[in-house]
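Example record used in the benchmark description.
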Amino acid sequence: MKRTLSLLALVALTLVAVNAWAAREHTKAVAKTMTVKGEIVDMGCYLGHGASGADHKSCASKCLAGGMPFGLLTADGKLYLLTLNHDNPDPFNQCKDMAAQTVVVSGTLMQRSGVMALDVSSVKAAQ
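Model output (structure tokens):
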């Protein structure tokens, strides 16, 4: 009986490990780089009461300087959380000084639990 339980436990652990590896490989395969145009918004004010635009620039700048998470709001209403690229943090940090501005951000798209995020690899003011 103990031998059977040990064998079943070993099979279960193997299946868990294989599934975890497959999920990680799948995530790598579907990761894609994209370029998105939108407004830099602070997540707290935007999610809390829809604040965005030039009228909110002063508040958004203070919130971003204070460490508030920020995102990119597209013209069609999609919101991307912006995240730091560990290999090159400069573009992400530049976004902090671009509150309420329309910019073009490139980065790797990430999605989990309904949240879309861009790992920022470049940013520039929109033309």
